[in-house]
């Protein structure tokens, strides 16, 4: 039986790149609006994919019916998922929104088992539960007042569901088109004009300020990091099951915190961090030795 170790290694690297992209995105937001940052990030990623197109592009890829799944993924992510996440944070606050979004790995595993007929081993189930618990622990910041409507929970749940669905659609596409970079190219090529139209509509309502050179640099860097992370994620999905890859990539908040502690000096080690590390590390190992 083929080992999942290479796929898990790529998924871990993808999670690290996503977390580094999160850190650079935070700095880009100091110079531009969220819609501008999203547009430049998507534009940077899709530009990289198209520049590399002569190295991998095949005419048969465009004739495959699986391209519809890839286009569907581009319709919902990252534009819709990012905006749902932003609205959830605005209404619920970062604590509740991040905690609810931690259900993402569970949704991905469910889609993999129900719709892709993947096998959920007990090691993967326990490892996923450990990762979700660690994410919730890292997200929680103490008691919060429930002064928000119950329906507002649909925003972070919807963002998590879209992320899980996009992973499943990418997995389906890879079954027919075994090219991780082409799968990313189609999805991002659909997302870019949507992001442009969204930014244009926002600009009509409230003109965006000009972007300084430093802000542009942070956006291009974060877009390159995200684009590379998606490529590695798709490669991992090509090599292994969704139930294995998705929980590993869900470790992104954990790596974001680690970068904040050791690189950007924005956080400190506390009991919660120690417990999260003690959960994430054995959970990843458990998934790897299923």
Give an overview of the whole structure.
By secondary structure, the protein is mostly helical. The protein has one domain. The chain is about 80% helix and about 0% strand. The protein has 15 helices and no strands. It has helices at about 5-30, 35-50, 55, 60-65, 65-75, 80-90, 95-100, 105-115, 120-140, 155-175, 180-205, 215-240, 240-250, 250-260, 270-290. Helix 1 packs antiparallel against helix 12 and helix 11 (about 180-205) packs antiparallel against helix 12. It starts with a helix and ends with a helix. The model has no long low-confidence stretch (mean pLDDT about 85).
Query: Which overall shape is indicated by the principal axes computed on the Cα atoms?
Result: globular
Computed over alpha carbons, the radius of gyration is 19 Å
Percent of residues in helices? over 70%
Structural class, by secondary structure, is mainly alpha
Average pLDDT over all residues: 86
Based on DSSP secondary structure assignment, what is the total number of beta strands? 0
Helix tally equals: 15
The string of secondary-structure elements, in order, is HHHHHHHHHHHHHHH
Whole-number count of domains: 1
Largest sheet: none
Q: Unreliable stretches, pLDDT < 50, 5 or more residues?
A: none
Distance between the termini: 12 Å
State which percent range the strand residues make up.
Answer: under 5%
């Amino acid at each position: 039986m083929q080992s999942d170790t290479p796929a898990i290694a790529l998924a871990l690297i993808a999670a690290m790149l996503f977390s580094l992209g999160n850190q650079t995105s935070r700095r880009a937001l100091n110079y531009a609006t969220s819609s501008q940052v999203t547009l430049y990030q998507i534009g940077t990623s899709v530009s990289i994919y198209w520049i590399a197109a002569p190295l991998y592009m095949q005419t048969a890829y465009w004739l495959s019916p699986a391209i519809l799944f890839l286009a569907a993924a581009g319709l919902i992510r990252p534009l819709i998922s990012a905006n749902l996440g932003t609205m959830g944070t605005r209404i619920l606050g970062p604590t509740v929104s991040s905690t609810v979004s931690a259900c993402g790995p569970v949704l991905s595993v469910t889609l993999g088992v129900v719709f892709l007929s993947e096998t959920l081993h007990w090691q993967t189930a326990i490892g996923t539960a450990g990762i979700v618990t660690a994410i919730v622990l890292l997200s929680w910041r103490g008691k919060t007042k429930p002064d928000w409507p119950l329906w507002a929970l649909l925003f972070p749940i919807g963002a998590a569901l879209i992320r899980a669905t996009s992973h499943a659609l990418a997995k389906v596409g890879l079954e027919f088109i075994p090219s991780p970079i082409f799968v990313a190219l189609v999805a991002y090529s659909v997302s870019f004009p949507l992001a442009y139209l969204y930014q244009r509509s926002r600009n009509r309502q409230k003109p965006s300020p000009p972007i300084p050179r430093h802000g542009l640099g942070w956006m291009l860097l974060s877009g390159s990091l995200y684009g590379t992370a998606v490529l590695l994620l798709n490669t991992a999905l090509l090599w292994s099951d969704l139930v294995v890859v998705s929980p590993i990539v869900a470790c992104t908040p954990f790596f974001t915190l680690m970068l904040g502690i050791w690189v950007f000096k924005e956080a400190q080690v506390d009991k919660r961090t120690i417990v999260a590390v003690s959960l994430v590390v054995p959970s990843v190992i458990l998934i790897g030795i299923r």
